[in-house]
Amino acid sequence: MTDHPIPGRLRPGAAFAWRGAARALAARRVLLAALALGGLSLLFLTLNARGNWGFVLSYRGVKLAALLLVGAAVALATITFQTISGNRILTPSVMGIDALFVLFQTGTVFGLGAAGFAAIGPWARFGLELALLMGAAMLLFGTIMARGRQDLHRMILTGIILGVLFRSLTGFLQRMIDPSDFAVVQSAAFARFSAVETDLLALSAGLSVLVAAALWRMRHALDVVALGREAAISLGLPYRRVVLAALCLVAALVAISTALVGPVTFFGLLVSALAHGLVRDHRHATLLPMAALVAGIVLVGGQMVLDHVFQAAATLSVVVEFAGGLAFLFLVLRESRR
Question: Measured between alpha carbons, how far is 245 from 241 in angstroms, rounded to an integer?
Fold first, then answer.
């Protein structure tokens, strides 16, 4: 349902005009967000830049691309997952995928040591992490397909239990790991936007563009899915096939972003809440681009503030996760009062 209910006393013609005005307003807000992100990106590349412009632009350009890529991937995955689950306080990452990533990093360092971990190489490690995370996500998210939304609680409980299990195993291995190797494991617990392999970034960008294009083609089907399982089936939508395809795309986006920079648990929740609040429109043709743009604004603007105001005294991922955690608590409390 749209967040702007049409007044019941309006005539059909006036109702269509009202709906058209609401959609035009949402489109203008998306355009303003795009202009704001463009201005922030230009400022990010040039603010306080000194010395060799070629080096500065290439260094900052890679960092900017990583911020935009991860932000868009997490935002699109969160909006799609919330549509499928019918719940706006859920994110794919909170289902234990981030804990599995940290467990994989810890187990690899524990078994091979820091030197062996580094010897694997970024390409092989990225491929292993991508395959592991996508496989785990598909197994977990697939539980929602058994009985539609009736299995939502089972999926949440399964994700929470697996997340606790993965974190417990990670803590156990970290207590047994060599102290000199612990720093390598500790760095994997937080997203690292400033340490991205350029070649991996290009590959991740290509994969993300393909997945985003597939999601964009499904935008009208996702609008129908948002009406509910019974309503979607009654309208002739192949519900199981559409949801399964959407879950595959969500799993791919989550795996790509996590394997590239690390886990970001609550960031998607923050971005989706802001996107819904800004456009107040149920259509995914508006929600998907707005969520991606808001994610870019938050990450690029946040990184600029940390770099030029606080002199990089804090880590962007920690600040964003803190804000996302507050957004999660706010949404939970608001839902409990309804």
Answer: 6
